[in-house]
Structure formats: structure tokens, C-alpha cells
Write the C-alpha cells for this entry.
Amino acid sequence: MPRGFAWILALGVLAATWWFAGHPGWQTREQKYQQSQAAKLAAEPILYRWRDDHGVTQITQTPPKGRKYTIVKIRNDQNVFETTEPRPEPSQ
């Protein structure tokens, strides 16, 4: 009977070690949320809107050096640029 007790005790120690080691492979709700947010940010492209020397609006993947720029947000649900600039009126 002492052998059976030793096996049960060994299994209990292994289970306790696994539990207190943070359940490898198991995540809390907070950890899952943080991981999904990090993946979402990594998936969203970052674009920069700025004006060149001729006043033409440029949108690039790298920020311009020595110029003011704004970060362009992309709507993931429709893949459409959000714009704050008014549309130019058609010339007559």
C-alpha cells in the first residue's frame, strides 16, 4: 500500500507544480484581451498624411522628416480612409 500512496503523492506534487506555475497554455481573460488588442494593432497599417512643397497631399507608410503630418486611421470594417478635409468644389 505505501507504493500506491507514493504515486498519489507524486501526482499531487506534479499537479500542484503545474497549477502554481501558471497553468502553461492557459490564459486569463485579461491576458486574452491584451493579446487580441496587440494583434489588432499589429494588423492595422499606419499611414501618414502630409503636404509636399507644392501643397499636394501625400499619404505614405513612413512619416516625412521635418514636416507636420497626421496619422490616417483606416476603418477595418470597410477599408475606407477617414477624412477630415472637405471635398474640393468642382470647377465650372
About this structure: The chain has a mean pLDDT of 79. Residues 2-20 form the longest helix (19 residues). The CA atoms of residues 49 and 55 lie 12 Å apart.
